[in-house]
From TrEMBL:
Residue intervals of the TauD/TfdA-like domain: 129-374
A Pfam family hit: TauD
Lineage: Eukaryota, Metazoa, Chordata, Tunicata, Ascidiacea
Protein name as annotated: Gamma-butyrobetaine dioxygenase
Protein's UniProt keywords contain Iron: yes
Family: Belongs to the gamma-BBH/TMLD family.
Domain of life the protein comes from: Eukaryota
CDD domains from the UniProt entry: CAS_like
Length: 406
């Protein structure tokens, strides 16, 4: 995109650029200066800090602006410049890409919101699937395929995975290092009699794992080593919490705002001698996180780990009202993906986005044994973008539910 003409405001703080398509961008003097890419200002190695912003005058202002290279470059000098004889130069394409007018910012946020794009499609509740053979035969493309499902739809089922304990590490490590939690890097979901509902035959309500951490685990992998035919029950359910939250915003804006403002307290404290690892974790956070633009970028839900509500008296009743409305929504059958895992299935889902549940089951002499692990969501997103570039796919850095719109 080429620059048609430019104009400096009377106070010399704003540069207005008119582009060849007549779009107007307005850039502050400090913004243009602090993003200079000349050899004196642009870092040449990671963590190099060449522009110390507090060192510049707070009254930094435009002095002279010139269009060069037939509208492809912009050359700028500043009043009260810190460096002698310094000229800032920017490529027009880069400037246009970084335009921060309201319309451009809104377009960027929408483009990255693959979650909302998927939800608007209104697809039937069918689990996306990939066969393990695709990962073996074409490692990068097979891995990218299931990653794309998880990024866009929140989940993917990999079928026919060999029933070996090492497989969850093998598949997970293609994407990121396994994330360490209080359960270790890898853990088993099996009836052991341990004082934890997950390690019993009890049903588990819809929830996200480990909200007691500042940052809950990202992707969850569950590999079915055994699900014997004698076992009855134990079906699985997934619900897209982002979908449920948007329904709440539409049906009950007041309750939505309550869950944005009023925090729940999550607690996992176990000092008993029989515990796998003594643990003391507490964290207070709201159920819904909005970004600068008012978009939902994070949600937290785990009734089983909520402890005593610790909020101001005026917020108690409105919190429980909103909590009940949210619970009613996530229990709606039309939002639920229901399925029964088979031996060899490996279900992968975004733990920061999807709620998961398990029906109670009876062993009847059989065994239900899943092996689990987590991957950090930031690493997963990075791998997705790196693989896309390597494979020649044009993808936009997506919103993934990690409390950021970028």
């Amino acid at each position: 995109m080429s620059i048609k003409n430019v104009q400096i405001s009377l106070d010399k703080n704003i540069l207005e650029i008119c582009w060849s398509d007549d779009h107007i961008s307005r850039f502050h003097a400090k913004w243009i200066r602090f993003h200079c890419k000349c050899v004196r200002c642009k870092p040449t190695v990671t963590f190099d800090y060449k522009i110390d912003i507090p060192s510049f005058s707070p009254d930094l202002a435009y002095d002279e602006v010139k269009i060069t290279d037939e509208g492809q470059k912009l050359r700028v000098t500043f009043e009260k410049e810190l460096f002698q004889n310094h000229v800032t130069e920017h490529d027009s394409d880069w400037l246009r890409q970084k335009c921060y007018c309201d319309a451009c910012l809104e377009d960027k946020v929408k483009a990255r919101d693959v979650i909302s794009k998927h939800l608007r499609k209104g697809k039937k509740k069918i689990l996306p699937k990939v066969d393990y053979k695709e990962i073996v035969d074409n490692s990068d493309r097979g891995t990218f395929k299931w990653l794309k499902h998880v990024i866009e739809e929140g989940m993917c089922l990999i079928e026919n995975v060999p029933r070996e304990e090492k497989m969850i590490e093998e598949i997970g490590s293609k994407v990121a290092t396994l994330e360490m939690t209080s359960y270790g890097p890898v853990w088993s979901v099996i009836d052991t009699g341990v004082d934890n509902a997950a390690y019993s035959t009890m049903g588990l309500p819809l929830h996200q794992d480990q909200p007691t951490y500042e940052t809950a685990p990202g992707l969850q992998l569950l590999h079915t080593l055994r699900f014997d035919s004698a076992v009855t029950g134990g079906d699985s359910t997934l619900v897209d919490m982002f979908k449920a939250v948007e329904i709440l915003r539409k049906e009950s804006p007041e309750d939505f705002q309550t869950l944005v403002e009023v925090p729940a307290t999550y607690c996992q404290i176990d000092h008993s001698p029989s515990s796998i690892e003594p643990t003391h974790l507490e964290h207070q956070k709201p159920h819904i996180t909005l970004d600068y633009f008012g978009k939902v970028v994070g949600c937290v839900w785990h009734p089983g780990l909520q402890s005593a509500l610790q909020v101001r008296e005026r917020d108690v009743e409105r919190y429980y009202k909103a909590h009940n409305k949210m619970m009613e929504i996530i229990r709606r059958e039309k939002l639920q993906y229901k399925f029964k895992l088979s031996a060899g299935d490996l279900i992968i889902f975004n733990n920061r986005r999807m709620l998961h549940a398990r029906d109670a089951y009876k062993s009847n002499g059989g065994v239900r044994h899943l092996r689990g692990a987590y991957l950090r969501l930031d690493d997963v997103k990075s791998k997705y973008l790196v693989l896309a570039r390597k494979l020649g796919y044009d993808v936009i850095p997506p919103k993934v539910g990690n409390n950021s719109s970028m």
